[in-house]
């Protein structure tokens, strides 16, 4: 059976590890590939490859690095269909969602193409008599990215395009559940002109992660995953002197005001709650409905729309499904346990996604869209991140109660409000304790030239990913203050009659 390889020093390499993990197609439940979970020695080899490549790559001009990013962008566009199908096969998400993931990752590549401007630094003339000061934004060295299963393309591309463009080298450790896309990205980077050793992929699990968190050659670590692991990554990496940005879990709330456009809100909530089978850190999993009247209207519309949803395979002939399977059989069981917990704790189960069957794909890991009403803040399904297609409606009497619930929750990744009132929206945007806020936008993921990151226990570390924070994370400032003695002026210059260019 095909085995997903490592990519080290510009070469596809087989792991010698005896620990083998199966990669499943979530729609069929069938093993499609295998991946070896790399050893400590193999992980160290990937780090050494990046370490050796750093000096030359860091001295490469930002202009040349930007041109490589431009070429990489073009290759991503050319290969979009093939890559999206691979994502769908190993993750299970529908094809158009996989294309959307690639598009959002490609936007960070586009941002990284502007690195000659973004990495300019600052300059002040005559800070003292005959004294000038300027700053340099220099790369760190070898950086590592540890990424989750739910976005095998987008999340790595939140990290490595900015890291590479600023002159760092990189070691990527993708999820072992859907690792094949990482190798395809490595091949395209090589084709775009990234020198051998600059970008490396090591397949593995905690053994590889712990090497990345402790090896002294690693200067910075980026992570996206659950909050307990994010906290572990941040604590361990920081204890070993590394920069770290570790993005954790979420429980994204939306406040539905009585004056909201209920049709627009219901449509938005449907996609945000059930898109990608709810396996998004920005999935909308809680609606705080202000008043019973608007809650009743929302429930009626959601039940109707859920009844018309199509759940099935990610790749299909004809009309595309709305939602695919979840990632593994174990995760399916975990989601179903949350649903059971909600029923036991007294929430009203309006739509039950357990036992969902897709004809011809009875072994797939399908969970249907699930809707709870009358959820209360003491319930497990309210407090914890489910990471599945489960939506909880909490009925609250007023805006202040809704705002307090959002602000007192341990997570603060994203929050949204649906309203027609500008003053309410403005007040919510200022007062809500969340890193990303949507006004009549259910999934407020910023564009690549802004930065992505939550608050509270949704992030560990002071800097978010991509945007200006990403550039700051992958560079360190050096300030040079200089005075020059008087010197003999050059007396002669040869003339040149061609347009000057920089290489």
From TrEMBL:
What UniProt keywords apply to this chain's record, in alphabetical order? NAD, Oxidoreductase
Task: Report the top EC class in one word.
Answer: oxidoreductase
Q: Name one GO molecular function term.
A: methylmalonate-semialdehyde dehydrogenase (acylating, NAD) activity
Residues of the Aldehyde dehydrogenase domain: 14-480
The record's annotation in InterPro entries points to: Ald_DH/histidinol_DH (IPR016161), Ald_DH_C (IPR016163), Ald_DH_CS_CYS (IPR016160), Ald_DH_N (IPR016162), Aldehyde_DH_dom (IPR015590), MeMal-semiAld_DH (IPR010061)
- EC numbers: 1.2.1.27
GO BP: any one term: L-valine catabolic process
Xref: PANTHER family? MALONATE-SEMIALDEHYDE DEHYDROGENASE
For this entry, the protein name equals: methylmalonate-semialdehyde dehydrogenase (CoA acylating)
* Source organism: Xenorhabdus khoisanae
């Amino acid at each position: 059976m095909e085995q997903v390889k490592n990519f080290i020093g510009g070469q596809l390499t087989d792991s010698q590890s005896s620990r083998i993990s199966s990669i499943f197609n979530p729609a069929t439940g069938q093993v499609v590939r295998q991946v070896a979970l790399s050893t400590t020695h193999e992980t160290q080899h990937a780090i050494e490859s990046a370490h050796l490549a750093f000096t030359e790559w860091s001295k490469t001009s930002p202009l040349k690095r930007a041109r490589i990013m431009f070429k990489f962008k073009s290759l991503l566009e050319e290969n979009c269909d093939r890559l999206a199908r691979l994502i769908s096969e190993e993750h299970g998400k529908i094809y158009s969602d996989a294309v959307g993931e690639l598009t959002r990752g490609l936007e960070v590549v586009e941002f990284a193409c502007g690195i000659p401007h973004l990495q300019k630094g600052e300059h002040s003339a005559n800070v003292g008599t005959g004294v000038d000061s300027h700053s340099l934004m220099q790369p760190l060295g070898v950086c590592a990215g540890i990424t989750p299963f739910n976005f095998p393309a987008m999340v790595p591309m939140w990290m490595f395009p900015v890291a590479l463009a600023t002159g760092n080298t990189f070691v990527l450790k993708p999820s072992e559940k859907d690792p094949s896309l990482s190798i395809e990205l490595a091949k395209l980077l090589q084709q775009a002109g990234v020198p051998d050793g600059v970008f490396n992929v090591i397949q593995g699990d905690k053994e590889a992660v712990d090497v990345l968190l402790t090896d002294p050659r690693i200067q910075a670590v980026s992570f996206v995953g659950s909050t307990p692991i994010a906290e572990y990554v941040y604590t361990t990496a920081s204890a070993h002197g590394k920069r770290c940005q570790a993005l954790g879990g979420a429980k994204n709330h939306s406040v539905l005001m009585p004056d909201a456009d209920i049709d627009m809100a219901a449509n938005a909530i449907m996609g945000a709650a059930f898109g990608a089978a709810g396996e998004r850190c920005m999935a909308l999993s809680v609606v705080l409905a202000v008043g019973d009247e608007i809650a009743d209207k929302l429930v009626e519309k959601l039940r109707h729309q859920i009844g018309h949803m199509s759940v099935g395979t990610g790749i299909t002939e004809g009309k595309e499904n709305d939602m695919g399977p979840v990632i593994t059989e174990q995760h399916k069981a975990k989601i179903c346990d949350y649903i059971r917990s909600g029923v036991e704790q007294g929430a009203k189960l309006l739509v039950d996604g357990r036992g969902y069957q897709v004809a011809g794909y009875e072994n797939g890991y399908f969970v249907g869209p699930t809707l709870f009403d009358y959820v209360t803040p003491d319930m497990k399904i309210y407090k914890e991140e489910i990471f599945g297609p489960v939506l909880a409606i909490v009925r609250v009497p007023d805006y202040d109660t809704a705002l307090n619930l959002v602000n007192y929750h341990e997570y603060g990744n994203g929050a949204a409000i649906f309203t027609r009132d500008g003053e309410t929206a403005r007040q919510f945007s200022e007062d809500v304790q969340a890193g990303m806020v949507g006004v009549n936008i259910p999934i407020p993921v910023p564009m690549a030239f802004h930065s992505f990151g939550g608050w509270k226990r949704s992030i560990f570390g002071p800097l978010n990913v991509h945007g200006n924070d990403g550039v700051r994370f992958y560079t360190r400032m050096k300030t040079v203050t200089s005075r020059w003695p008087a010197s003999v002026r050059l007396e002669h210059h040869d003339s040149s009659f061609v347009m000057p260019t920089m290489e």
